[in-house]
Design goal:
Distance between the termini: 16 Å
Strand order of the largest sheet: 1-2-3-4-5-7-13-14
Largest sheet: 8 strands, parallel, barrel
Number of helices: 15
Bound molecules: 6-O-phosphono-beta-D-galactopyranose
Helix content: 25-40%
Length: 474
């Protein structure tokens, strides 16, 4: 009774948060490039401030990020030293199709990822590829308004076809969209949506979500046709929703919030809109427009496995409650009095991971994959230039313990675990560098200074032992 021998231990990153090099290799501009650091970031990522180009008044942390574009060999060497069996990364769409609507892909972009995958292969590290991690070409936002348009399905599938064919011999594990449910909370990141004054935002978000869901199902179909060994997962931001109290109104509100969160994976895993969503979207007059074949497409091509990120649970009270609001992964919730919080106010709830694993497994009965988990914290090098990140070790240890219990004691079928931001990278919600998750420190600061040099934190050696012992030594 322990983790399966082939349990996939590793780490996860996203192109826009680590690659940089946004003007290199023929790459085009993407939504993620124009999300500034600072006060305007929130309005931009939620689609309320239109920013489709860079200006001089803002700084754009994705432009250089931690320059993995030029450091990937070094990063992979360090991942291999930690014993990674899997590395989750994403493709920058505009490296492959700079504008999004080209007929032919950009060879230089393909070559970059090919070299990266060759490097993975050299170390026996399996890539787990997120096809779209908060990534939408600016060209497509200009041409058709991002995922509000059904045309996006065709552009996305063009990208998928190129990836599945070109990287057939390197990649067999794919995720269609990162945190697909984030479209409801950060629609510019999730779907390239920018709202005009007076638009019905909910209707547009659910229409865009429908397009992504159809695209995701068709990507599953295509992946299996091109290589029967391909396994494709959905990916959503998980975290069980607790009622603030046992008052039925709180319980009901928590259940509804949970359903809103599960809606996407319900469609991707079970192949149909759940009845609660049909009724509520119809009642609000925002049920998406569908083509006649859509129902069948969703039904025929469900995902093979369920991937999710877990940072924290959420706590919900009935409307009208005066409970204090909590921070956390772009979701609204109230402060859970039984938990402690990170420096960014995110709740810390390891048992919540076990609860979430059980809940998700009960719901879908498909293999699960934790593809993000970790602690965003400020790291200060000590006088010897070492980073003693015991707080990160403590967080990860408790979460891995909870995951172990779910596997060993509850029988959850779990494929693997990739810790988020295994090498320091730019924060998605805040654009900061100082919110660090890595086992590997990168000398890059919020003001853009730093040598980009990599160094091992204390957690590096700790995680190395965790992997070497297959989760027995924590
Ligand atoms: C998820 C995203 C990641 C990542 C992570 C941590 O929502 O999939 O891209 O960044 O959260 O969040 P943050 O960077 O805001 O700390």
């Amino acid at each position: 009774m322990s983790f399966p021998k082939d349990f996939m231990w590793g780490g996860a990153t996203a192109a826009n948060q680590c690659e940089g090099g946004i003007f290199e290799g023929g790459r085009g501009l993407a939504n993620v490039d124009v999300c500034p650091a600072g006060a305007d970031r929130s309005a931009v990522i939620t689609g309320h401030k239109k920013m489709l180009a860079m200006d001089d008044a803002h700084t754009y942390p994705a432009a250089e990020a931690v320059d993995q574009y030029h450091h990937f060999r070094e990063d992979l060497r360090l991942f291999a030293e930690m014993g990674f069996r899997v590395y989750r990364l994403s493709i920058a769409w505009t490296r492959i199709f700079p504008n999004g609507d080209e007929e032919r892909p950009n060879e230089e972009g393909l070559r970059f990822y090919e070299e990266l995958f060759q490097e993975c292969k050299k170390y026996g590290i399996q890539p787990l590829v997120t096809i779209c991690h908060f990534d939408c070409p600016i060209g497509l936002i200009q041409v058709c308004g991002g995922w509000r348009s059904r045309k996006m399905i065709g552009y996305y599938l063009r990208l998928c076809k190129v990836l599945f064919e070109r990287f057939r011999k390197y990649v067999t594990h794919w995720l269609t969209f990162n945190e697909i449910n984030m479209i409801l909370h950060a629609p510019f990141l999730g779907a390239g949506l920018v709202f005009e004054e007076g638009e019905d935002e909910e209707r547009i978000k659910y229409q865009a979500a429908h397009h992504e869901l159809v695209a995701s199902a068709l990507a599953v179909k295509m992946a299996h046709e091109i290589n029967p060994s391909n396994q494709v997962g959905c990916m959503f931001a998980a975290g069980s929703v607790y009622p603030y109290s046992c008052r039925p109104q709180d319980v009901w509100e928590a259940l509804k919030t949970g359903q809103e969160n599960y809606f996407f994976a319900d469609v991707q895993a079970r192949g149909a809109y759940p009845s609660y969503a049909v009724r509520r979207l119809q009642a609000q007059g925002i049920y998406p427009q569908m083509e006649p074949d859509d129902v069948q497409i969703l039904q025929r091509y469900p995902v093979d496995f369920i991937a999710f990120s877990y940072y924290n649970s959420r706590c919900i009270a009935a409307p009208g409650s005066t409970q204090e609001e909590a921070e956390g992964n772009l979701f609204r919730s109230v402060k859970n009095p039984y938990l402690t919080f990170s420096d960014w106010g995110w709740p810390i709830d390891p048992l919540g991971l076990r609860i979430t694993l059980n809940e998700v497994y009960d719901r879908y009965q498909k293999p699960l994959f934790i593809v993000e988990n970790g602690l965003g914290a400020m790291d200060q090098p000590d006088t010897q230039e070492q980073i003693e990140d015991d707080y990160r070790i403590a967080y990860l240890r408790e979460h891995i313990r909870a995951m172990k219990a779910a596997v060993e004691e509850d029988g959850v079928d779990l494929m693997g675990y990739t810790a988020w931001g295994c090498v320091d990278l730019v924060s998605a919600s805040t654009g900061e560098m100082k919110k660090r998750y890595g086992f590997i420190y990168v000398d890059k600061q919020d003001d853009g200074s730093g040598t980009l040099a990599r160094s091992r934190k204390k957690s590096f050696g700790w995680y190395q032992k965790v992997i070497a012992s297959n989760g027995e030594i924590l």
